[in-house]
Design goal:
- This protein is an alpha/beta fold.
- Among the domains are: 21-72 and 250-334 and 441-501, FAD/NAD(P)-binding domain; 136-241, Guanine Nucleotide Dissociation Inhibitor, domain 1 (Orthogonal Bundle).
- Helices cover 33% and strands 18% of the residues.
- The chain has helices at 10-13, 46-57, 102-109, 145-153, 159-164, 167-170, 180-185, 190-196, 201-214, 224-236, 251-265, 307-316, 323-330, 376-385, 403-417, 473-491, 509-518; strands at residues 21-23, 38-42, 61-65, 77-81, 87-91, 118-120, 126-128, 133-134, 245-247, 269-271, 276-281, 287-291, 294-298, 300-303, 338-345, 356-360, 367-370, 388-394, 426-434, 458-460, 499-501.
- The strands form 6 sheets. A 7-stranded mixed sheet has the order 8-7-16-17-18-15-19, sandwiched between helices. The chain has a 5-stranded parallel sheet with strand order 10-3-2-14-20, with helices on one face. A 3-stranded antiparallel sheet has the order 11-12-13.
- A hairpin with a 6-residue loop joins β16 (356-360) and β17.
- α3 (102-109) packs across α16 and α8 (190-196) crosses α10.
- The protein is globular, with a radius of gyration of 23 Å.
- Residues 1-14 have low confidence and may be disordered.
């Protein structure tokens, strides 16, 4: 395992896949006029930061409002004091920075051109309680050998399983296009789609449900289109695989503090601890933004909020959009609650434990991270105390669950995964409960907002926003942030941000033909 202090490997430094698609922004002059437009960006997560960056770099006067005390949105962090008197940075937990996140990585390169703050984990291991284990370290990266290699190397697949599968029903996996994938598969759940193709049960838990858990959702509720899109991004749309990077320090220090300095250097006014409570179009042009009881006028606004925040702000802003758009926003749903538990243990776990482990069959436990394997702050605490810093995730917890009981159960499940943690004193523990991730339910694609709204002065960004490109999760947030900026820049005749995605269709002509043949 690479220590947090060492330089990243060449694999972690590589650029985009050679077949990535370039998506030029709108043409125009390089910068807005000196007394050019002013824009309010509401929300300081990845989407809002991306929009603010693209706008500010082109001379637009930007004010960014964030209701929390820190930037980063769902990747924010904050200081805590532990029971042993030391300080640490708490957050909402582990996030994987996949190499296919071209636009998010482009945002981070503004302050770290070599992405030296990221560390490549050597494997993405998955472990089922029944004993099955899968790994992505040896899986080929080039499609279609990536998918075939996973099947050949996985102990959860057998030739009998392959014979039982329904290849005709599985062919939509081979030629994924947006939005066609939603037209074909948004009406079925991820669980039912896998059942339809007779995907092996054990492999389902250890592979495809990893994707559904990335959406903090039960596969019975998740649209199959989102699951199949993820398959395309990681297996058949790029040759970069499923190994990923993680920040070598906590999110604020590694990512958001440097980006905040970059933005203020470009004239952005950052207003944290400032909730926006209303947005109203102004007759004759512009919008009025209400924050802390004060009204401020801008030429345009980017709404880069989570699902609940967007619903709330639109409901409080009665003149935004039209009735149909407002109704769609009101129907957006939030994924079930999730729990992140971080434990500071008196003794270290075994040296062979990976930095990240996906789990299945252990109850509510979805993964375990050993933070000192890759995060500098945790590694320094471990070196000083001889202990370990572990993080446990439980997704899609029942909304009415007893939180204290769920927290205790999660630690008990850790003991089943890593038995050496039994009886070890917990120096400190922190539990974070959240329910603010978008849900992509069966049949919900039509209600999801697009970047553009009925009012050209108002644009929307975030990981719940529809795009015509194969992107998801943090990359969808970054991409829609840049797209929102481009929509405004194009109105003002200013050159937009160039974007990149994995190919918008399967890379193999033969497999695309097979998929089209099966669809007749």
């Amino acid at each position: 395992m690479t220590s947090p202090g060492r330089a990243r490997s060449g694999a972690a430094r590589h650029g985009r896949d050679r077949r990535a698609q370039r998506l030029p922004g709108p043409p125009g002059r390089d910068r807005a006029a000196a007394d050019g437009p002013a824009v309010a960006v509401v929300g300081g997560g990845i989407a809002g930061l991306s929009a603010a960056t693209a706008l500010a770099e082109r001379g637009v006067r930007v004010t960014l409002y964030e209701r929390g005390g820190e930037l980063g949105g769902r990747l924010a962090g904050w200081p805590v004091r532990l029971a042993d008197g030391s300080t640490a940075t708490m957050s909402r937990g582990f996030h994987a920075f996949f190499p296919q996140y071209y636009n998010l990585r482009g945002l981070l390169r503004r302050v770290d051109p070599g992405l030296d703050v990221l560390r490549r984990l050597p494997d993405y291991p998955l472990h089922h309680r029944a004993g099955a284990r899968d790994s992505f370290a040896r899986v080929p990266r080039t499609p279609p050998w990536s998918a075939l290699g996973f099947v050949a190397l996985s102990p959860t697949f057998t030739w009998r399983d392959l014979v039982r599968m329904r290849p005709g029903a599985a062919l939509p996996l081979l030629d994924v296009r947006v939005p066609q994938v939603y037209e074909r598969l948004d009406g079925i759940s991820a669980h039912d789609f896998l059942s339809r193709i007779r995907f092996p049960e054990a492999a389902r838990h250890l592979a495809f449900e990893v994707f559904s858990r990335s959406f903090f959702a039960d596969p019975r509720e998740l649209s199959a289109a989102e699951l199949v899109l993820m398959f395309h991004i990681y297996f058949l749309g790029s040759s970069e695989g499923l190994l990923f990077d993680v920040p070598a320090e906590p999110f604020p220090q590694a990512l958001w503090h440097p980006l905040a300095r970059y933005l203020t250097g470009h004239g952005v006014r950052l207003c944290t601890d400032t909730a926006v409570t209303g947005v109203e179009p102004v007759a004759g042009g512009g919008v009025r933004v209400v924050a802390r009881g004060e009204e401020h006028r801008f030429d345009a606004v980017v709404l880069a909020l989570d699902t609940g925040g967007l619903r709330q702000l639109v409901a409080a802003s009665g003149k935004l959009g039209d009735a149909a758009w407002r109704a769609r926003i009101g129907r957006l749903r939030t994924a079930p609650p999730f729990l992140v538990s971080r434990l500071w243990l008196e003794r270290r776990v075994r040296a062979d434990r990976p930095g990240f482990l996906g789990t299945s069959g252990f109850g509510s436990l979805d993964n375990v991270s050993v933070l000192e394997r890759w995060e500098g702050e945790a590694a320094r605490w471990s070196a000083r105390t001889g202990g370990s810093v572990l993080e446990l995730h439980a997704y899609a917890v029942a909304p009415g669950a007893d939180r204290g009981r769920e927290q205790r159960r999660l630690v008990e499940q850790l003991h089943a995964v890593y038995p050496e943690t039994r009886g070890v004193r917990i120096v400190d523990r922190r539990h974070e409960w959240r329910a603010d991730c978008p849900l992509f339910p069966v049949g919900g694609f039509g209600d999801r907002p697009t970047v553009r709204t009925p009012d050209p002065r108002v644009v929307v960004a975030g990981d719940a926003v529809r795009t015509p490109f194969p992107v998801a999760l943090m990359e969808r947030a970054a991409t829609t942030g840049f797209l929102a900026a481009n929509a405004l820049l194009g109105r003002w005749g200013v050159r937009g941000q160039t974007l990149w995605t994995v190919p918008d269709r399967g890379r193999s002509a033969a497999l695309r033909w097979a998929a089209r043949w099966a669809d007749r």
